[in-house]
Amino acid sequence: CADIAEDVCDCEGTMPEENYDCDGNCTTGIDCVGVCGGSAEVDECGECGGSGSEEGYNCEGVPELFTYNQSTEQAFYYFYTVTINNDNVDTDDWVGAFKGDVCVGSLQWDITMCNNNVCSLPVMGNDDTDWTVGYMETGDLPSFKIFDASNNEYFDALPSENIPFENFGTFVLDSLEGGILDCTDDSACNYNEAGTVDDGSCTYPEEYYDCDGNCIADIDCTGECGGSATDDECGVCNGDNSSCSDCAGVPNGDSWESDCGCVAVDNSGDDCDDCFGVPNGSAWDSDCGCVAGD
Question: Dihedral (C-alpha) 220, 224, 225, 230: value to the nearest 10 degrees?
Fold first, then answer.
């Protein structure tokens, strides 16, 4: 047959297999498993036909914020208990150590895989390589986060003790508490009812004041809130009653100072006159009458 159509392989009208020409050559792309015209692709993790990394994780199965580089300088922080909102973490949860925003160590907290059910968190230091820039230096305090695998949520975490980094250091701590770190004392000015772990940030009003700076105690006569100064009986603030005391020392009293000294108001003040009427004189009454003292 002389007239064979372009897309027909022979005089019998045989058609080429889909995606191939009549000579058996693939006319479309070959996918990653070697199928001509196939749809399999290499995912972000380099796996042919894979589905990529799980949401919230990298290709190695590590939470996205918890990736870090190995270092020749490192320390280990052991925690007897690790909790989120007072509940022990699950075996799928992770713990991470940070210097600022830089992750310097992490571990899946599966205590069944740790000696005596106590896991150690590796914390990397700066060993002067390009990939450890910004890592821990001696004396730095690491901060911590916990990753809740059940809902892909990160929580800040508070260690039971702040221990500075030291190369090759091994530190054992009682607990690491994750949750909403804030002031949990409802008597504090900055109380946060949503807080689940008290981070020591509570602030309190000055004595005798409320959180808005209002005096909630009595104000004394000097204007001091909660002060003890009072008006004396003379009406003088913080006075000693001396400004209005009479000669007998009685505030607002009516004793008076006579020639004979301080006497009561109903006293004529001549009790000390001699018989000539001279105050404190020496004349005396004799049988002959009032005579001079000499």
Answer: -20
Distance CA 55, CA 44 (A): 12
**Which segments within the chain are labelled E, that is strand?**
74-84, 87-88, 94-99, 102-108, 119-124, 143-148, 153-159, 170-179, 181-182, 197-198, 256-258, 261-263, 284-286, 289-291
d(CA 94, CA 59): 16
- E strands of 164-255, at which residues? 170-179, 181-182, 197-198
Residue 276 has pLDDT above 80, yes or no: no
For the entire predicted model, the pTM comes to: 0.69
Q: H/E/C letters for each residue in 5-73?
A: CCCCCCCCCCCCCCCECCCCCECCCECCCCCECCCCCECCCCCECCCCCCCCECCCCCEHHHCCCCCCC
Look at the block and give the residue holding tokens 């792309």. 29
Span between the terminal Cα atoms of the chain, in Å:
183
Say what the pLDDT of residue 100 is.
Answer: 97
221-227: average pLDDT: 96
In the numeric block, which tokens belong to residue 175?
A: 């607990």
CA distance 156 to 122: 18
